[in-house]
Amino acid sequence: KQEVTQIPAALSVPEGENLVLNCSFTDSAIYNLQWFRQDPGKGLTSLLLIQSSQREQTSGRLNASLDKSSGRSTLYIAASQPGDSATYLCAVSLKYSGGGADGLTFGKGTHLIIQP
Amino acid sequence: DAGVTQSPTHLIKTRGQQVTLRCSPKSGHDTVSWYQQALGQGPQFIFQYYEEEERQRGNFPDRFSGHQFPNYSSELNVNALLLGDSALYLCASSLLGQTSFYGYTFGSGTRLTVV
Hints:
- The complex is a heterodimer.
- By secondary structure, chain A is mostly beta strands.
- Chain A contains no helices and eleven strands.
- Chain B is mainly beta.
- Chain B has strands at 5-7, 10-13, 19-24, 31-37, 44-50, 53-57, 64-68, 74-78, 87-94, 105-106, 110-114.
- In chain B, the strands form two sheets. In chain B, strands 2, 4, 5, 6, 9, 10 and 11 form a seven-stranded mixed β-sheet that branches.
- In chain B, a hairpin with a 5-residue loop joins β7 (64-68) and β8 (74-78).
- The chains are: A mainly beta, B mainly beta.
- The interface between A and B is medium-sized, with 28 and 33 residues.
């Protein structure tokens, strides 16, 4: 059974700092990995999707890396801003035998607070 | 381009009752998945529908059932509600059968409270 762990569970840093969120998964045969952002009481916003054949993806101030062999991914946020405050969720899927992606397995998330 | 829409946004039900939640996928998507998110936890996969059939199911009891319609929209039904069913229910859509997978798009969720 796939398990996803996110470290740290919570993080509070001053505005402007660069930071790294960690995600690890137990089954390295993933199909893809997706990072999401969730604001309190809201749905999920997709940030970055990394296919199993890729090593990293970038979008603006965000960079996500994937190391399948070690079962790890990191989300790097550059020059953090108060608007980045949210819960960040990592999710992986295996390849479904009938084709396409399996249902997602999520970590519990990292609750991030950026202090002004 | 409309994203994933869910209704209602909030719902209060009594133990033992039945509830139906609705989801319209993102335009161009053909697959709908449902997730349950308890407070402080990551979402848990309930099931996925494709071509009007349940394609895959997570570790949830038969009280949880679903349906997908020809227009790809979907319903989640929960019977004999328990207090522990109180959660945020998220719908996600995707496109199956493409060469590259472009990920899941999530809706804003339905907050279900069972009293």
